[in-house]
UniProtKB/TrEMBL annotation, chains A, B:
Residues 39-151 form the PurM-like N-terminal domain. Belongs to the HypE family. It holds the Pfam family AIRS_C. This is Hydrogenase expression/formation protein HypE. It comes from Helicobacter turcicus. InterPro entries: HypE (IPR011854), PurM-like_C_dom (IPR010918), PurM-like_C_sf (IPR036676), PurM-like_N (IPR016188), PurM-like_N_sf (IPR036921). Residues 168-315 form the PurM-like C-terminal domain. NCBIfam families: hypE. SUPFAM superfamilies: PurM C-terminal domain-like, PurM N-terminal domain-like.
Length: 338, 338
């Protein structure tokens, strides 16, 4: 598949098939020889023979304030979670703020306060920051880019999307699709009259007890843009395995299910900001679930298994035994979801 | 000085007095306890007892293509230069691209090509990257944020803005104000009919011979937003010293001087993207100049000295012996200069 367009499309940023294509067709050909660690949530750097994890993300969410969070909290959780997916604890963070002329000081103040509160929770230190102000109209309100640097406190972990064996179990650490449903209903002006909040949260604290256990973890990935559908497809392709998911086992809040039915979405395609997919030895899955439930991840659930059938594909099994392929989400999905 | 405004102003991003004020009055009160290494170009991180330098910057320049460079080249040089100012060589780089829907694939391709070329020159590896696409109108074309991680190959260096002694010499590594003059004249539609180009370049290669020497270097800073006027004022305040600059010793290209006279600017307030200010022991200044001249910095010049008179202030001496304070640039200066 080539980039058969002259212009950037919204779908190039969706986290689905078109995003993969933009990276593969435009970025990689130039950058190939100077890229390391591609295909994981964070890269592994090495200085003086010491490994550490590094991950960067730009946050452009709209609206900037939403139920359960704001762009400041999101920009810390997102990058800290990315290094957590490699098993690393964020110890340093950088932040670049881009502000629109005329942006309200009060709003900036709320955002910096929440950024700071979440940073303190994470335990990471802000090591470098930058602020740019652009003329009115040159950007919409505020964008934040953060880079997290994480250290490996549990060196026995060797998490990778590329070495997942067949016959391992797939767990999600919480309800799926909540962040996406909150942002979408907010933008569509749907008044939910509920207490539904984005799941935006730091994942390291709920995962650390798993890292400290002697369970056999294969891979972790936070299911942001493109939802769990993207994560599962990436894993199936990277490790050349099949993945079978049981539809009835997916934990979805009733309000989220309602929004999905109203708007014609599937929760497995929607973004999450405080939920990850965990691949673990089948024999350790039940124990992992207990640890997760005990440590704040009360909705964690086993949702499926890896197999040697249908390599590189994800299969969704319904209650009635029907099966269909669960593909990468494609199309525009939801711009500015994170 | 408090933030006596309800909204963000362009001057908050100028790199001058108002930028300092925004940081001090809004960001620091929230972040104080979780910030390290403030006041330098890069922070010093430590993992497993090993130090490394980290610096982040957002690049929002307009126009995105200019004589001597583009936003891709700039985004590598800028962050690599920031860690070079601590004496560190960039070994890893992260990049976050924000793209406007409808941005031309050809333009993106030119930018990624130049980004990649400069990255290869730097010797750093891209360890993490992110691409976001926003709906048309949500940002102007393309913004790039990079974070450079640098290693200290010359551990005898202890560069800091806070420990500059009196009676040291101030050197600039090249002509001043060139980048700012190119961008400004481009935006004003001034056709220069000259070959004037931005100085946008990697600084580590011209500085490494100084690092490898046994000369006594005190501080380095690249003179981006706010020009050398900002750097000198930051140093004077951070180290509680006076700085005297000889107007006639400032290396300025005649075309840049012409643009300054036409537009009413001073070259010492204009941004540079491949030039730094060096503070060095007086007795080593001449030797340093020879090393710089031999290694590609042919316009490097000694421009002044630190003193114990007028602590925290910078004094500009003209040819005729007149003296005046050279203050932080203030006001709007030039938005989107880098």
């Amino acid at each position: 598949m080539k980039l058969n367009t002259e212009s950037i499309l919204l779908s190039h940023g969706s986290g689905g098939a078109e995003s993969q294509n933009l990276i593969a067709e435009l970025f990689y050909p130039f950058l190939e020889s100077c890229v390391i660690g591609s295909g994981e949530d964070a890269g592994i750097a090495q200085i003086h023979s010491k490994d550490f994890a590094v991950s960067t993300d730009g946050y452009v969410i709209s609206p900037i304030f939403f139920a359960g969070g704001d762009i400041g909290k999101l920009s810390i959780c997102g990058s800290c979670n990315d290094v957590a997916m490699m098993g690393a604890k964020a110890c340093y963070l950088t932040a670049s703020f881009m502000l629109e002329e005329g942006f309200k000081i009060n709003d900036l103040s709320r955002i910096v306060e929440s950024f700071s509160k979440t940073l303190k929770e994470s335990g990471a230190k802000l090591i470098s920051a930058d602020t740019k102000v652009l003329p009115k109209g040159a950007l919409d309100k505020i964008f934040i880019t953060t880079t997290a640097i994480g250290e490996f406190l549990y060196p026995h972990l060797h998490l990778s999307a590329f070495k997942i064996p067949k016959e391992s179990a797939i767990i999600v650490s919480g309800n799926i699709g909540t962040h996406g449903a909150v942002i979408y209903s907010n933008r569509e002006g749907i008044n939910l009259n509920t207490t539904l909040e984005s799941d935006c949260a730091l994942l390291y604290p709920i995962l650390e007890p798993l890292f400290a256990s002697n369970l056999t973890l294969y891979a972790l990935r936070d299911a942001t843009r493109g939802g769990i559908a993207s994560v599962l497809n990436e894993w199936a392709q990277a490790s050349n395995i099949g993945i079978t998911i049981l539809d009835s086992s997916l934990p979805i809040l009733p309000q989220v299910q309602g929004i999905c039915e109203l708007l014609g979405f599937e929760a497995y395609n929607l973004a999450n900001e405080g939920m990850c997919v965990i691949c673990i030895a089948k024999s350790d899955a039940q124990k992992a679930l207990e640890i997760l439930h005990k440590n704040g991840a009360s909705n964690a659930a086993i949702i499926g298994y890896t197999t040697d059938r249908n390599p590189k594909r994800v299969v969704l099994e319904t209650n009635f035994g029907a099966k269909r392929f669960l593909d990468y989400p494609s199309g525009e999905l939801l711009p500015r979801i994170c």
